[in-house]
Design a protein that fits this description.
Blueprint (H helix, E strand, L loop, with lengths): L4 H18 L8 H14 L6 H19 L5 H21 L9 H18 L11 H8 L5 H24 L6 H15 L21
Helix pairs in contact: 1-5, 1-7, 1-8, 2-3, 3-5, 4-5, 4-8, 6-7
């Protein structure tokens, strides 16, 4: 998964940006943020569960269930399943006329959350997460990680979110298509085995200096 970390992080940022802007202000993968929304809603309005709290709770449940169900799948199949979820999300986006509102947001948010849950399951054995980056930033701050390995997702996720904000404001019909292209590219790269390192030529033995 190391070869595809920055690609998948870019896709995760894009999908999270789309969910935040167009699917009710809810994250598709940041479980901590969604749990905070549920807690704030429960404390401020315990008798009437707000729409945001329902969407946040749904996202947490869908993410958790996806990771549990996909924990035994190999990474390649997780990426293919994520690709299928994103393609289905594209269909729902088109049916919603590129601007989902109300109850239509719920199934689309569920699909986005399932997609990123599958992405998390694909990288379960990797020390480089592509969506939840608190641990990466903590390791960098503590000097337990290198910027060259943990740094790319920290740049790619906000770049993906910024792309979603700028692109969908101008070309809303694109919807999740950029994320589909990114995950498809990551799936192809993952399926191709890496090139073996070139064998190094043995060093020539030094000739002893001639002494008459």
């Amino acid at each position: 998964m190391r070869r595809t970390v920055w690609i998948l992080a870019l896709a995760a940022g894009y999908v999270d940006g789309l969910a935040l802007l167009y699917l009710g202000g809810i994250f598709a993968s940041v479980v901590t943020g969604n749990l905070v929304l549920v807690g704030v809603a429960a404390a401020t309005d315990p008798h009437h569960v707000t729409g945001a709290a329902v969407r946040a709770a749904l996202a947490v449940a869908a993410y958790t269930a996806t990771v549990l169900l996909a924990r035994r799948l190999p990474p390649g199949r997780c990426l293919l399943a994520e690709l299928l979820a994103l393609c289905t999300l594209c269909g729902g986006w088109a049916v919603a006329d590129h601007d989902p509102h109300g109850l239509v947001q719920l199934p689309l948010l569920t699909l986005a959350t399932i997609a990123l849950g599958l992405q998390a399951a694909a990288g379960r054995d990797s020390d480089q997460p592509t969506a939840y980056l608190t641990g990466s930033l903590t390791r960098l701050a503590q000097g337990r990680a290198r910027l060259t390995t943990d740094g790319p997702p920290l740049i790619a996720v906000p770049a993906g979110a910024a792309t979603a904000a700028l692109l969908l404001d101008r070309v809303p019909w694109l919807g999740p298509l950029p994320a589909v292209a990114l995950v498809a590219a990551a799936s192809v790269i993952h399926a191709v085995p890496p090139r073996p390192p070139r064998p190094t030529a043995p060093a020539r033995p030094r000739q002893a200096a001639y002494t008459p």
